[in-house]
Description:
This protein is mainly alpha-helical. The protein has a domain at 5-62. 87% of the residues lie in helices and 0% in strands. The model has no long low-confidence stretch (mean pLDDT 84).
Amino acid sequence: MYISSRAALIRNLGIALLNGAITLIILLIAPLGLAAVIINTILITIASFVNATAGDAVVNFLQPSQIKTLQAEIISQQSQLTKESKK
Length: 87
């Protein structure tokens, strides 16, 4: 499945904002100070965005086209090493 980087960014921002909104609602119910609520909400929003982006990077790395590219690079490096060792 191909998804453009812009679409992935929008999706990840949507995930992060939704998680942040849910966290804000839950934390506003708890008897915490306003600063703690705001800081926790911001941290969870950032963490959600980073996790979603990292997940996209892993999925992109595991795509068959990436694996074929890596295999081709390894074979190319091995052939260069054998040429250099013969000299």
